[in-house]
Each structure stands twice: as C-alpha cells, then as structure tokens.
Amino acid sequence: FPARCTAHRGPLLHCLADPGMAAEPEPGSTQWLEDGMLIVDGARIVACGPAANLLPRLHPDTRVLHWPERLLVPGFIDTHVHMPQLEIMASYGSQLLDWLNTYTFPAEARFDDPDWALAQANLFTDLLLAHGTTSALVFCTTHAQSAAATFHAAEQRGMAVAAGKCMMDRNAPEDLLDTAQSSYDDSLALLQRWHGRGRLRYAITPRFAPTSTAAQLTKVAQLAAEHPDVLVQTHWAESRSEIEWVRSLFPERADYLDVYQHHGLLGPGTVLAHGVHIDDHDRDRLVETGTRIAHCPTSNTFLGSGLFDLQAAKRCGVTLGLATDVGGGTSLSMLATMAEAYKVSQLRGQPLTPWQAFYLATLGNAEVLHQQQDTGSLTVGKMADFVVLDPASSPILRLKQQRAQSIDEQLFNLMMLGDDRAVAATYVAGQCRYRRPDTGSGPGP
Ligand code: GUN
Ligand code: ZN
C-alpha cells in the first residue's frame, strides 16, 4: 500500500449480510476483528483485515492511527429524519396530528428565512456527524431553500445525503403550502441542480397523503416516473387518527397504501416512514412492489403512535431500515434508536438481537437507500465512512464492559447504554469530520 494511505488500527466490527433474527448471527454475516486494520486511500477503503496480516504490507511512511480502546464501525445511516425539526424535539403533550399543528408547522414556517435555513442545515449536519451518522435521507420544509441549504451543508462535509423539499398543497398553514404545479417545478429544479452531484441525491418528498391533493400526488408520480433513479419519501400508517383521516379524505381508495399505490408511488425507490398500523396484505404489497419502510421507534413511542411489528415485517420479507424521525424522534443517535427498537420489540414479546439492530443501522439502511455499493460496511472498495466508538464512554458502560464476556454483550451494552458520548470520532470519505472534544486519549485526526 502506497505511503499516501492512512491506516486505522483497532477492534473492528461490521456486517457483511443480514445476520437474521436469531440470537446467533447467520454464519459469515458479521466480521469482528479484535485487532483489525482499515487502510484508506483517499476517500475509499483499500484493505480491511487483521492488523497482523496488513501491517507488513504498509509502506514504512504510512500514517497509522492506533485506536486500541475503541471500536471501528461503519458510519451510521439514518433513513428518515427532518432537518427543520431540531428545535421542536421534546415538545410536550400531543400526538401526531396535534403535534404537527401545534409545534411542527410553526417551526417549519421559519424556514422562509434563508439565513435561518442555512444555519439550521449546518447545525443539523454537524449534529449528525457528532452522533456518528454519515448518511441520511432527509425531509426539509416546503421552501426550496431548505433543501438547497441541506445539500450545501452535506456537500461541504462530504456526506452521502438524499434530501427533498416537502410537497404539500392542503391541510397545513397557508404559508407552508405549495401547489401541484409549483411543487413539481421546484422539486424538478432542485433535482436538476443537486441530484448526482458528488454524493448527493434528490428525494421526491410529498409529506403524506393528508397534505396532498390527488392532483399533487399525480404530479409526484409524474416526476418520479421521469426520474426513475430518484428516491421518493413520505409517511405512512403512523397513527390511528391519521389513518382515519386518510380514509375520509380518499373515500374512493381501498386503504391508505392504496392511495400511494393508485398514484404509482410504490416501488424500490420509495421509503415509507413508520408503517406501524399495517397487516400482512400491506406487507405483501410492499414486498411485491419493493417498497421500503423506515422504522422510527423513538418517534413512535414519544408521539404515542404505536408499536411497529418488526418480526412480522421481516417474516414477510419487507425491506426495512431504522430511523430517528427527529423531531418526532427524541434522539439523533442511532445507538439510542437501536435501544428503543429493542424496547418496542420487547413490548411485542420479541427481543431484537444486537446484531440485527446493528445491521439495520448500517448495512440494512444502506440497502434501503440503494447505497450499499458505497456505504454500510467496511468492505474494500466502499467509501471510508466510519465511526470510532468508545465502548466505555460513561461510568456505567465502563463497568458493564469490564464484565462483558463476548462481543455480543459488548455490542448490546453499547446499544442499550450508548449515545453520542460514545462517538469518539467520525470519518467521512476518509476525512475526520468530527472529534469528541473532551478526551485526550487516542490519536489525533
Ligand atoms: N407525518 C406527516 N408529517 C410528519 C412529520 O413531520 N413527522 C412525523 N413523525 N410524522 C409526520
Ligand atoms: Zn417523519
């Protein structure tokens, strides 16, 4: 390996495939190296394996960063998060539809100010990195400039971000509404400007069925059909009152999913957030069309929406990922999100294994977003998006990790008790983009 490479040495953990739902991961689906090495040439990984094998192949001038007390893992991916909702996290006392009217829409209206939009987009991307998240599928506001600001901020940080301007032409305050035609025009202009620029991708973003007329959904479908490589994101079947409302707004449609299916919005490029209140008929239609679900556990518990049935979705073969849904969600940390997914599964009598949770937050989410060629694991040829985790980042984690008998236990401790304090450093495309301020131990970026 040429001298220009950088090597990161330390314990290393990633998934190579879906480990399944059983306590023991599928053979060959995970790789744990107690003394591993990741060799990075520019933005990409050129080697990943036991340090003992790779050390002799390094050029003597290669910079080696040694992280003996850390854990190298792939950068986390968040498959559903709202850039403009940071300030309404932890808003008290209401469920989805009231929460939207009381807190969300007023906060989103502030994004008609371009300075505010840019400041929030910068804060948002910095916070993603501080939580170890290097890729995300992001909702913005109705204002085109909120999406442009998000793309700007992500590009400056080298992140693989897909985002879109929210489309809504009814059932929201006047100053947040667009029209079927203007939402098409604005989305198209953003798509042409940003989609495929470096690591950025556009995502066509109708908010959800209640805030779009049938005319707007038709324009959404037209835009998606004209750009088949562009993602589509929306919300679906999150709360019971939302589902009732959709029934009254679209009486001619069989059910909520049929609203999207009828308008040609289902397919492998579509990510539906939530899908809490659904049945096997819904799951079959997701599988037949290749449509994906983003499971958002901290949001579903915080807003009192319901308990997602992860086991049923996996059993039916639905492609699904894990997401924070901030500001409905209560943390940007994918570790905290894994913990909440475990608790939601527990309430359904089905413990979620740390392997499946870790897979969902990394390689599983990469597959949901069709970016597994470049992200989600530390495999040779992928972009060097990785996180240096501190497995003993708090007194309780330190105590627990001293007693852990296996990597399974260590991972479960991290998932249940870890948060952004466990992120010692975040690398994006080989560059250090975040360094935890307080601790002096370990090498510099
Ligand atoms: N449904 C429609 N809009 C939203 C939103 O902003 N957050 C959540 N959690 N659900 C929604
Ligand atoms: Zn959402």
From TrEMBL:
Q: Which UniProt keywords apply?
A: Hydrolase, Metal-binding, Zinc
Q: What is its EC number?
A: 3.5.4.3
Q: Which GO terms describe its biological process?
A: guanine catabolic process
What is one cellular component GO term in this UniProt entry?
cytosol
Q: Is the Aminoacyl-tRNA synthetase keyword given for this protein?
A: no
Cofactor(s) needed, names only, are: Zn(2+)
Record-linked InterPro entries = Amidohydro-rel (IPR006680), Guanine_deaminase (IPR014311), Metal-dep_hydrolase_composite (IPR011059), Metal_Hydrolase (IPR032466), Metallo-dep_hydrolases (IPR051607)
Q: Which residues form the Amidohydrolase-related domain?
A: 72-431
The annotated pathway is: Purine metabolism; guanine degradation; xanthine from guanine: step 1/1
Q: Which reaction does it catalyse?
A: guanine + H2O + H(+) = xanthine + NH4(+)
Q: How many cofactors are bound and how?
A: Binds 1 zinc ion per subunit.
| UniProt cross-references to SUPFAM superfamilies, sorted A to Z | Composite domain of metallo-dependent hydrolases, Metallo-dependent hydrolases
Q: What class of enzyme is it?
A: hydrolase
Q: Which GO terms describe its molecular function?
A: guanine deaminase activity; zinc ion binding
Keyword Zinc listed:
yes
Q: Which Pfam families match?
A: Amidohydro_1
Q: What does this protein do?
A: Catalyzes the hydrolytic deamination of guanine, producing xanthine and ammonia.
Record-stated family: Belongs to the metallo-dependent hydrolases superfamily. ATZ/TRZ family.
NCBIfam families according to UniProt: guan_deamin, PRK09228.1
The UniProt entry, under PANTHER family, shows:
GUANINE DEAMINASE
Quote the protein name from its UniProt record.
Guanine deaminase
Q: Origin organism of this chain?
A: Natronospirillum operosum
